[in-house]
Amino acid sequence: MLNFQYYMPTRIIFGPDSLDKLGDTPHLPRGDKAMIVIGESGVMIEQGYLARVQSLLSRQDVQTIVFDRIKPNPESDAVDEAAAVCREMGVKFVIGLGGGSTIDSAKAIATMATNPGKYWDYMQSGTGGGQTPENEPLPIVAIPTTAGTGTEADPWTVITKSGTDAREKVGWGYDGTFPALSIVDPRLMLSVPPRQTAYTGMDAFFHATEAYLATCRQPASDALALEAVHLISHTLPQAVAEGDNLEARTVMAWACTAAGLCETYSSCISQHSLEHALSAFHPDLPHGAGLVLLSKAYFGFLAAHGEERLGDLALAMGDTLAEDLDEEVTGVAFLDALDTLITGVGLADEKLSDYGVTREEIPALAENALTVMGELFDVTPVEMDVDDVIAIFEAAYE
């Protein structure tokens, strides 16, 4: 645990109304032309966020072009298309405005704007080409409007391979894909609907939880993970119920960013491998929903195999009884607290079958999890083989 590296090159400007600083911050990447990447839903336009960002950038003499073809589970063809536009139009830096999908896409687009070939040539797993980018990406600016992925504080980007039969959703990144600047303004999150607030908040919760359990953890990630788990457990139900509560939104925004830092200093574990398989097979499944639907079965497996640090997480969630429990049942305390949180944010009634998942495809899902995102099993504290993964999927399906 005490052999680690600590590296965080991103400048984060945090707090309500911090977006206003975009118009005069000296930390904006240099260049007179930027691509703003937004989702295909049009929410950034409807809420006025796109126009506001464009206006603030104009104060710094930056012209903008907009790429608006990003899906909730972004695909590699869109990355390649946008990168070609960047090269053609002489774009100097890329801005991701929106949720994790748009910011992740901005990182991938920035990489491909300066490197040859297709995005999937650089994926290190699945059918990826395993290449290493030769050239530094364009600078990246992240402006999140949800509290979920924490991508504003890490180098990771999650993209799905295009094609109906591809079924590969891969997390990837390196030092070059850290944002140069991230502006985290909780006011931009006031418009997020309750269910999406719940999905994204639970995503942040599991980033922190997994980072605390990962075998590559370190002191900085441990401290931030427990902070994020505590804050989310006590604040997410309120943010779901009171979407216009700026204090709750601000706490959730920090918890999300803290969990993103955990992904930089530590790592997610194989719960994310299983979920990536699910949403690769079923792209309409929100990532946070998939994690929730897997969580009781997944962490139940860890608890059954004696993972002691689940007790620390139960304490962070506010279960004071966990202090007096025997090691054998601290995992139960965490599972009880997790069940309470899921119920409190209104997600207790969802089922995998709601999203078209079938029991018959479970063996294929397990194989996908172990191969496409297999490296996360290497930092999972409990060893798992294909039969274990199938058993987790089966238990989650009940």
Automatic annotation (TrEMBL):
Annotated Alcohol dehydrogenase iron-type/glycerol dehydrogenase GldA domain residues: 9-186
Swiss-Prot/TrEMBL keywords: Oxidoreductase
SUPFAM superfamilies: Dehydroquinate synthase-like (SSF56796)
Superkingdom in the source lineage: Bacteria
Segment forming the signal sequence: none
Keyword Oxidoreductase found: yes
Name this polypeptide is given: Iron-containing alcohol dehydrogenase
Organism in which the protein naturally occurs: Pseudodesulfovibrio karagichevae
